[in-house]
Write a structure and sequence with these properties.
By secondary structure, this protein is an alpha+beta fold. It has seven helices and four strands. The chain folds into two domains: about 40 residues; about 110 residues, no CATH class.
């Protein structure tokens, strides 16, 4: 089937095992969404995240385990780790996905990266991006995320302000500096 040049979506036909199909139908029904929406979500997750996970070195770990690890870290250690790692994963994802360090691309990658930890709300108004990450892990983990994002912002000369940090979530405003 030919694809229209200005089309935002395409029709795709493929074969999968019947057992997998049945499980996908059941998952979609449990989530209250269509099979099409589930498949679109899964393919987006693959393209924006999963295809690079092995190369970057991600390993699955539960939130509970992360919470236990961060429970025993003091602020100085958390800040050192955040400083050492701040920006590494988002930068790698950015260059693997978009090939260009551009502010809007960077903000998209921050959102994709944050989705690993839980629900994310990303809005933008008047050049200020509001990134709210509901991770549900611990206050120390919020502190880590805040420090890591601050390191990235400092490295890229972005303005960042943390508007909330607690045991469940961190909220921040990020904006590109105005050119004089």
């Amino acid at each position: 089937m030919p694809i229209k040049e200005n089309s935002k979506s395409v029709n795709l036909s493929c074969r999968i095992e019947k057992k997998i199909y049945d499980e996908l139908i059941a998952d979609a029904k449990r989530k209250g969404i269509s099979l099409n929406s589930l498949m679109a979500s899964m393919t987006k997750h693959h393209v924006t995240w999963k295809r690079y996970a092995d190369e970057i070195g991600f390993v699955p770990i539960t939130k509970r385990m992360i919470g236990k690890i961060f429970k025993y870290l003091d602020n100085d250690t958390i800040e050192k780790i955040a400083h050492d790692l701040g920006g590494t994963v988002p930068r790698e994802l950015l260059f693997l996905t978009y090939n260009e360090m551009e502010f809007e691309n960077f903000m998209r990658i921050l959102e994709i990266n944050a989705l690993r930890f839980g629900a994310v709300k990303h809005t933008q108004e008047n050049g200020i991006h509001v990134l709210n990450i509901h991770h549900g892990i611990s206050e120390n983990f919020s502190h880590f995320l805040g420090c890591a994002h601050q390191r990235m912002a400092d490295d890229l000369s972005l303005r960042m302000r943390i508007t909330n940090s607690d045991r469940n979530m961190i909220c921040m405003n990020i904006e590109k500096p105005q050119l004089d």
